Amino acid sequence: MALLEVKELSKHFGGVVALDGVNIKVDKGELVGIIGPNGAGKTTFYNCITGFYPPTSGKVFFDGKDVTGLPSHKLCRMGMARTFQIPRPFMSMTLLENVMVGALGAGMSLREAKEKAKEIVSFLKLEEQANKPISKLNFNYRRRCELARALATNPKLLMLDETFAGLNPSEIDEMVKLVRKIHESGVTIMLTEHVMKVVMSLAERIVVLHQGKVIAEGLPREVVNDSRVVEAYLGQRIFV
After folding, report:
1. Which residues contact 23 (CB under 8 A, 6 or more apart)?
2. Rounded to 5 degrees, what angle do the CA atoms 196, 44, 163 make?
3. Distance of CA 66 to the CA centre of its chain
4. What are phi and psi of 173, to 5 degrees?
5. pTM of this prediction?
6. Do residues 124 and 147 make contact, with C-beta atoms less than 8 angstroms apart?
């Protein structure tokens, strides 16, 4: 059953067409990778789905409801969460307090938010950092804080926007384990990423965007060897 269904979604910025009739469906329980070159429309796609940009045309359906153009706070309370390319935590607050913000945004009381934040911090093995100011933590932990804050909203669908960017190889490996753990807990995930090692190890299905359009979709080993994808994005075939 489709948790997210996007039909003929388009977004224009004046004369620039960022999205051009995009059709994507994500079933409950899937882990779908969204790839494509810079400027392909990936983040604009996320922004239109999550209420940051109103689409120029097209429809967005989430959990069986038409949510086209709804503001982000309403979508959050319906079970849609995302991370961003650049983490922007509240620097004067602790990691735990930052995670509480996500729970409060989902409509929980202060007591409920604190308990939820502790639960997520434990789930992601961040107990040692929980009460440290986020300003004292490195980029890796700020990335994890962003992930924890999104999880604290109790999402049905979690959208990750280049969550692995800026991490070193060992940090990437650890983040892969965390994302897999989140998916195995029952959260549907849509993953936008340039690190192909990550996409190939996590995604069950890949959708490729180029110049605002879907140019390929299917199993990872099929998609990454598609001639259109090689020409538009990868530059060479990846044999897996």
Report:
1. 6, 7, 8, 9, 214
2. 40
3. 20
4. -60, -40
5. 0.93
6. yes
Which amino acid is it at 192? T
- Asked if 23 contacts 42 with a C-beta cutoff of 8 angstroms, the reply is no
CATH of domain 2-79+155-234: 3.40.50.300
pLDDT tens digit sequence for 109-158: 999 999 999 999 999 999 999 999 999 999 999 999 999 999 999 999 99
Distances (CA, A) of 216 to 66, 224, 233: 26, 9, 11
Long-range contacts of residues 127-131, Cβ cutoff 8 Å, at least 24 apart: 129/95, 130/94, 130/95, 130/96, 131/94, 131/95, 131/96
Every domain of the chain and the residues it spans = 2-79+155-234, 90-154
One-letter identity of residue 164? F
Name the amino acid, one letter, at 45.
F
